[in-house]
Amino acid sequence: MRLSRYFLPLIKENPSEAQIVSHRLMLRAGMIRQEAAGIYSWLPLGFAVLKKIEQIIREEMNRAGAIELLMPTLQLADLWRESGRYDAYGPEMLRIRDRHERDLLYGPTNEEMITGIVRATIRSYKDLPKNLYHMQWKFRDEVRPRFGVMRGREFLMKDAYSFDLDEAGARASYNRMFVAYLNTFARMGLKAVPMRADTGPIGGDLSHEFIILADTGESQVFCHKDLIDMPAPGPDVDWNGNLQPLVDARTQLYAATDEKHEAARFEKEVPEGKRLSARGIEVGHIFYFGEKYSKPMRAVVSGPDGSERIIQSGSYGIGVSRLVAAIIEASHDENGIIWPESVAPFKVGLINLRPGDAKCDAMCEQLYNALRWPDGMSVLYDDTDERAGAKFAAMDLIGLPWQATVGPKGAEKGIVELKNRKSGAKREVPVQTAIRLLSFSVISTEIDEIEKNAGSRISGDEDIREIIREMKK
Ligand code: ATP
Ligand code: MG
């Protein structure tokens, strides 16, 4: 993508309405624009990140056996009257009336609708288990929408719903989501800690919020420090086997949100040096609720002995749009955003310091053409007439993982300057090396994954890998 043709409305001054760093940086980097309180347009750069996050979630959900569908944003009030939630939900629900005087609502969540779909289509225990999910915009008329997309009124959620014959099956479904969530957040470069959360009147231990530690977080949380750096299980688990040991390994140590916190137990179970009390951002919530919706809505199947059985359900949410902000909270510096490669809107920012100079132009075109990916979103080529300082500042602000700078002196000698945004490491390399290194890096996250699965290296390029490793330090 050529910057001269792209749409990237950067803001120089710090927007006064933004109280936290992610909101400030998203506005300054031209990622979002507020249309009304808690309602945003996603400008191209922000939208590109949102799509990357969506895709990671999709891949990990599918890997765990969940199946994607799409339900509408508007729902009939009558459906919600069946579960009793139409009246119970309160002023957070946006209620709408159509021209036929029919009551509708803009979905704040989809338990009723998915239960309606399942009850109309699934008749036998043989059709279970099922886990259905979608990614759809939600509306909640929050009392205090704030912090940009962190707490919006309209926001994008991934919500999955599991359906099982009995509680043992439901627990297995829950565990699959638990592990899938660990892998999902790890792929985004996040350390998300599962913490015991409120189950409401249902009770039990099957409710966890996935929390990212951040001073600006809205939740107060308490946990054992060792949980923070515990690695994710990775994709190679036996998805149809027993995942309980993996879940237990992460639920044995103390971790609870405010509502579930027990101070005495915290002090008894966690040695003083390991106690962490911090603020956190909730990026996901998984929840087993049994027959809460299937009972009043009569979602039943015939069991193995022919008797009628009420379906056991759980729901599993991820704040897709909130994650964009949460990742920035976890990864930025005083100059701007630092995107993890897996969610970066472009992998490489190519800076031409002297557009119009024949050698600079030729070298930039060579790099640009060599690195362009089919979707056109691997390289953002700054071909504008801005002065050098402004170009560097803009690239740092939007946080692409790699910068490649071409100036008249270097172009004369066939040299490009590479910079890793995260480490700040810089290195001058011949243009061919730059092409090899950056093209490798464009696909490096995928290569890492493939090699991990294969248990071996799949290609040479040792020298290139060494430079990448060095620069990322
Ligand atoms: P919160 O306590 O933050 O209001 P919640 O318990 O209401 O969250 P859920 O109903 O479990 O949230 O929704 C699933 C996920 O959707 C949450 O984990 C969060 O990441 C995200 N989410 C919830 N409300 C918002 C919002 N107003 N703006 C952005 N994301 C949200
Ligand atoms: Mg809420």
What report would you give on this structure?
By secondary structure, the protein is an alpha+beta fold. It folds into two domains: 331 residues, BirA Bifunctional Protein, domain 2, CATH 3.30.930; 127 residues, Anticodon-binding domain (Rossmann fold). The chain is built from 15 helices and 23 strands. Strands 3, 7, 8, 9, 10, 11, 12, 13 and 16 form a nine-stranded mixed β-sheet that branches. It has a five-stranded mixed β-sheet with strand order 20-19-21-22-23, sandwiched between helices. It has a three-stranded antiparallel β-sheet with strand order 4-6-5. α10 links the parallel β19 and β20. α2 packs across α6, α2 packs across α9 and α10 runs parallel beside α13. It binds adenosine-5'-triphosphate and magnesium ion (MG). Adenosine-5'-triphosphate binds next to β8, β13, β16 and α9.
Small-molecule binders here are: adenosine-5'-triphosphate, magnesium ion
CATH architecture descriptor name of the largest domain: 2-Layer Sandwich
Helix share bin: 25-40%
Mean pLDDT: 94
Under CATH at level 1, the class of the largest domain stands as Alpha Beta
End-to-end span in angstroms? 28 Å
Q: What portion of the residues fall into strands of 2 or more residues?
A: 25-35%
Residue ranges: pLDDT <50 for 5 or more in a row?
none
Total domains: 2
- The radius of gyration over CA amounts to 25 Å
- Give the biggest sheet: 9 strands, mixed
Q: What is the third-level CATH name, the topology of the largest domain?
A: BirA Bifunctional Protein, domain 2
SS-based structural class? Answer: alpha+beta
**Count of DSSP strands:** 23
Q: Helix segment count?
A: 15
In CATH terms, the superfamily of the largest domain is Bira Bifunctional Protein, Domain 2
Shape: globular
